[in-house]
Amino acid sequence: xxxxxxxxxxxxxxxxxxxxxxxxxxxxxxxxxxxxxxxxxxxxxxxxxxxxxxxxxxxxxxxxxxxxxxxxxxxxxxxxxxxxxxxxxxxxxxxxxxxxxxxxxxxxxxxxxxxxxxxxxxxxxxxxxxxxxxxxxxxxxxxxxxxxxxxxxxxxxxxxxxxxxxxxxxxxxxxxxxxxxxxxxxxxxxxxxxxxxxxxxxxxxxxxxxxxxxxxxxxxxxxxxxxxxxxxxxxxxxxxxxxxxxxxxxxxxxxxxxxxxxxxxxxxxxxxxxxxxxxxxxxxxxxxxxxxxxxxxxxxxxxxxxxxxxxxxxxxxxxxxxxxxxxxxxxxxxxxxxxxxxxxxxxxxxxxxxxxxxxxxxxxxxxxxxxxxxxxxxxxxxxxxxxxxxxxxxxxxxxxxxxxxxxxxxxxxxxxxxxxxxxxxxxxxxxxxxxxxxxxxxxxxxxxxxxxxxxxxxxxxxxxxxxxxxxxxxxx
Length: 476
Ligand SMILES: Cc1ncc(COP(=O)(O)O)c(C=O)c1O
Known about the structure:
single chain, 476 residues, alpha/beta, Aspartate Aminotransferase, domain 2, seven-stranded mixed sheet, four-stranded antiparallel sheet, binds pyridoxal-5'-phosphate
């Protein structure tokens, strides 16, 4: 193999490259072995194999120009129609595929902005969202110059409709609710929020990126209706690349109003290269993702999804019961689907996350409240006993760790770990701040603790930007 940072003079053989790919991949998250509780939603290798074939059949095709590839146009329309039926959209509803939840959300916000500009002459719009809504909405507000009005949730982490109503004014362009929110897996009370939205004539977007391919198939539903059948809901996003089990790059956005959808389109007519029109953020749109979405929805059908959702829901309950059997661990709120988090009433939960990570299990660390996140897929049914075995070990170790015993590790950890990822000056700032506040530190548990201290100081954002920068440069 040549020096990795140089463009090879001559091409390298496929055999050698695949060997290298297998080798570097071996350090990645072992999602096929059920070790990931986020990032990858995995059902079964047979499904993945079939979808890989669908992807490669459309490996190079580009959906930017639908008239060039009528088959992609046909498949995209059929995907949207199939999604409309599970999300109870009225016949006149219209939609599009996007590359993922974030793009669907960006499009919902852009559409609401243009719509409000045209129909209500709002120049500087405001978007009302519960604090638990996905940061893609904050991103959208930042990108499109909209003010985000973030409202608190109740004790059960669901937002109250009256809390939203308090903030509606003449500049409100969109209300947002989640089905469910990622952190706690709870569905916001859409029927009540829908009433408020309708009464005030404000569009309402439902983020069902996580729930779109679970909630329609849950048996004995306990949550309120959440989809386009709810009065007041004007758009919904659902990710086929999450619980739809498609390859990455597949989401849909559906509007019950044609004018809203048109407001997400982009047109530029003065380019010397010709008239440019594109329906969403991406220019080139990978045909493979559309082919996969089309294939998976029909491969599984309603029955297939019902079966997979049943396994995920029952498995989530098993994990929740197991975790709750520890006196000092608690499931946060009452999750409506197979996505949940748990916290400790007694010790630093991030230490438990770190210990599990040492044993190659990945659970996202959440804040407010400090908790560990679990998105359960069918694969997790198979690894339950293995999980229990390792969890017990990790739990005992995490409980043993207390501030005293880890105090000495502060500098060691900081030097070894933080220094690796943060540039010198921000590392020093972080350390100084942490020491000023008397915080100790071990591994990422401590990093989170310290981040809590730094909130609002302005330097946290700066450091995270530097962190991202370092992660995407060759010297990292
Ligand atoms: C509720 C919710 N909405 C939106 C998104 C964004 O999806 P993506 O990562 O596909 O852009 C996520 C991602 O986890 C999510 O949990």
